Amino acid sequence: MFVLLAHLWWFILKACFMAMSLRLMWTKSLKVILLKINQLKGWFLPLNNQFVKYNHIFFDLDHTLWDYDRNAAEALQELIDSSGLVVKYPQITTNRFVSTYHQKNRLIWEQYNQNKITKQQLRASRFNLVLQEFGVNDPDLALHFENGFFVLCPSKTHTFPHAHLALNYLSQHYQLHIITNGFDETQAKKMMSSNIDKYFKKVVTSESMGYRKPDSRIFEFAMQEAGAMPSNSLMVGDNIETDIEGAKAVGIDQVLFDPDRVATCQTSTFTISCLSELTKML
C-alpha cells in the first residue's frame, strides 16, 4: 500500500511538473512571437499597454514647442520701452498693445496659411494694423517695430513646460522632425536659441517647401524626407485646421496640444494639455 501511494504521489508530481513546463514553454513562445511581430511591424509597447506603431514623430514649432505668445510679449515689451511708444502715444498701454498684436497676428497668419497674402504682405501690414487700432498712422514706426521684432523675437528662449524633458525622452526612442509654416530664418533661429534643434532629424518649412499646412503636399514631402510612412508617423500640434486636419487627411495619427483645454470636441487621435504626457503615452 505504501509503495502504491508513493508511486501515485510521484505520478502527480510528475504531471504537475510537466504542466508547469508546458505553460512556461508556451509563455516564452508567445513572448517570442509577439516580439517578432513587433520587430517586423515596428511596433512598441508603451506604459498604457497599447500597441503603438510609431517610428517618426512630427512636431509643429510655434505654440507647440516654442512658446510664441510669451516670447513675442517679451520682445514687444523691449521694443515698446526702447521706442518710447507709450510716451509718444498716451492712448497706448503695453498690455493693450501686446494683446492687440496677438489678435492681429493670428488673423493675418490665417490669411497667410490660406495663401491669401504673401510673406512680404504679412510683414508689411502686421504692425500697421496694430497701430491703426489705436488711431496711429505711422508707417515708419510700424516698419521699425516689424524689423526689430523680426530680429528680436526669434532670439527668445522660452519653450512650453517640459518641452526639453519630452524631447529628450522621445529622441531616444523615435525619430523627431519639424513641420512648420514659419519662415526659414526665424524658425531656425528659434530652435537654436531655445536649444531644441539638437533633437530633430528633419526640419521642413513651408517657405522652403512651397506649400503650407494643411496642404497634404507638405506632409507628404516631410515623410519622404524622413523616410516615413503615414502608418508609422504621428503629428503633434496645437492648430486643429493646419496640424490636426492636415495630418489626418494624409492618414497620419495626431496629437492635439491643448494647454488651455479649450478644445470642445475630440477631433484628433489623442489630446494632451502638457508635453510631459507624451512621455507616458509613447
Topology at a glance:
Blueprint: H1 2-41, E1 56-59, H2 68-83, H3 85-88, H4 94-113, H5 119-132, H6 139-152, H7 163-171, E2 175-180, H8 184-193, E3 202-205, H9 206-209, H10 216-226, E4 233-237, H11 240-249, E5 253-257, E6 270-272, H12 278-281
Parallel strand pairs: 1-2, 1-4, 2-3, 4-5, 5-6
Helix pairs in contact: 2-6, 4-5, 5-6
Describe the structure.
- With 282 residues, the protein is α/β, with parallel strands linked by helices.
- The protein folds into three domains: 1-41; 56-66 and 159-281, HAD superfamily/HAD-like (Rossmann fold, 3-Layer(aba) Sandwich); 68-155, Orthogonal Bundle (DNA polymerase, domain 1).
- The protein is 55% helix and 10% strand.
- The chain has helices at residues 2-41, 68-83, 85-88, 94-113, 119-132, 139-152, 163-171, 184-193, 206-209, 216-226, 240-249, 278-281, and strands at residues 56-59, 175-180, 202-205, 233-237, 253-257, 270-272.
Core attributes:
Rossmann fold, 6 strands, 12 helices, 10% strand, alpha/beta, disordered N terminus, six-stranded parallel β-sheet, DNA polymerase, domain 1
Short description:
With 282 residues, the chain is α/β, with parallel strands linked by helices. It has helices at residues 2-41, 68-83, 85-88, 94-113, 119-132, 139-152, 163-171, 184-193, 206-209, 216-226, 240-249, 278-281, and strands at 56-59, 175-180, 202-205, 233-237, 253-257, 270-272.
- Report strand order across the widest sheet: 3-2-1-4-5-6
Counting DSSP H or I runs of 4 or more residues, the number of helices is 12
Order of helices and strands: HEHHHHHHEHEHHEHEEH
Radius of gyration equals 27 Å
The number of strands is 6
Distance between the termini: 63 Å
Number of domains: 3
